[in-house]
Design goal:
Blueprint (H helix, E strand, L loop, with lengths): L1 H11 L2 E6 L13 H19 L5 E8 L6 H4 L13 H12 L9 E4 L5
Length: about 120
């Protein structure tokens, strides 16, 4: 996707790239194996793009949410949903919108979000 839009962003002298990863890309876990590795890869890609375009008017940001309360766990065969650590997808969407609607001179490099367990 980035390859498809970067030329247009360069021509417009403006753009935003927001890569959505996971908190697993920040905090490794031996229990998550390949999943964690792919999320670290997204983080590396994001950091590399940020360096590549730091002198251009292209913002590159990474969003690292905790687990999302979606049907994916149920689909994968896990019985429990609504674990205390799972976030509401609407809250995550609001954060993404907030990140993308800041002025060009405000960049949120790595936004990590977890649900507080009370």
């Amino acid at each position: 996707m980035t390859r498809e839009v970067i030329d247009r962003m360069m021509a417009n002298k403006y753009g935003q790239i927001l890569n959505v990863s996971s908190i697993a890309g920040i905090e490794p876990s031996g229990d998550w194996g390949v999943y964690t590795a792919t999320k670290y890869a997204v983080r590396g890609f994001t950091d590399s793009l940020k360096k590549e375009f730091e002198d251009k008017a292209i913002k590159v940001m990474g969003f690292y949410p905790g687990g999302m309360n979606t049907e994916i766990f149920k689909t994968a065969g896990f019985d429990s949903l609504n674990e205390p650590w799972m976030m509401d997808v609407n809250e995550a969407a609001e954060i993404v919108v907030f990140m993308l609607t800041r002025s060009i001179d405000v960049s949120m490099d790595h936004v990590e979000v977890r649900k507080k367990i009370v």
